[in-house]
Design brief:
Protein Transport Mog1p, Chain A; eight-stranded antiparallel beta sheet; three-stranded antiparallel beta sheet
Length: 215
């Protein structure tokens, strides 16, 4: 039992975050996690993951990802979004509640509110997809205890995402045929990974509680 607790504790390792802006020069971006949130380090080796932050209860999280395998189109349009949402629905990862075009650092981007379900847990997701000449940046806020768009700390964290230096403009012509699939697949994969982390944390707490009771 002690070995199990030790293994799971290592898996869910975290570092304290003090609510200050965190810069990621290798990815030319920065974001400000909420005060008292923690940096979750275990997923940093996963392809595309830049950072993951969460509250102590693991009911609210935000992750930043970057997809550079497929370059985005010059402008996001209804065709791209329609294909993106269709791929997400077909994959069964996330269902949209609403979506809209926004600007992030002067770049036309896409924001959506949706939900995903894993092992019976419904998770609200607030996602921003930001296209640049090198690829898509994805900022995803997740909430297990309500609507992510109604949690100020999640919204403020997602909105705090910025570029350290203005990225070069996107090329004039790009094929978008495979990009929506790649983006939706990356979001879905990371959502499942982060939700799995939440399940592991719950197991650790339960096992630790039973151990303390038996002591």
């Amino acid at each position: 039992m002690r070995r199990l607790i030790s293994i799971l504790a290592i898996f869910v390792a975290v570092h304290d975050s003090i609510g200050q802006e965190r810069e990621f020069p290798a990815h030319n971006c920065a974001i400000t996690p909420p005060p008292n949130w923690q940096t979750v380090t275990n997923f940093l080796s996963q392809p595309g993951v830049v950072a993951v932050f969460g509250n102590r209860q693991r009911t609210r999280l935000v992750f930043v990802a970057f997809d550079n395998r497929h370059k985005p189109p010059r402008h996001l349009d209804e065709r791209f979004i329609s294909q993106f949402e269709r791929e997400s629905e077909d994959a069964g990862k996330e269902k949209r509640l609403w979506g809209r075009f926004i600007e992030v650092d002067g770049i036309k981007s896409y924001e959506r509110l949706g939900y995903a379900t894993l092992r019976g847990k419904r998770t609200s997701t607030l996602t921003r997809a930001v296209p640049t000449t090198t690829g898509f940046y994805i900022v995803n806020g997740m909430r297990l205890d309500g609507d992510a768009s109604e949690a100020n700390e999640i919204v403020e964290c997602v909105e705090s995402f910025r570029f350290i230096k203005p990225p070069p403009p996107v090329a004039k012509s790009r094929s978008v045929d495979s990009a929506p699939y790649r983006i939706s697949n990356l979001i879905g994969r990371l959502t499942v990974l982060v939700l799995f982390l939440i399940v592991v944390v719950a197991i650790v707490k339960r096992v630790s509680s039973r151990k303390n009771q038996g002591a």
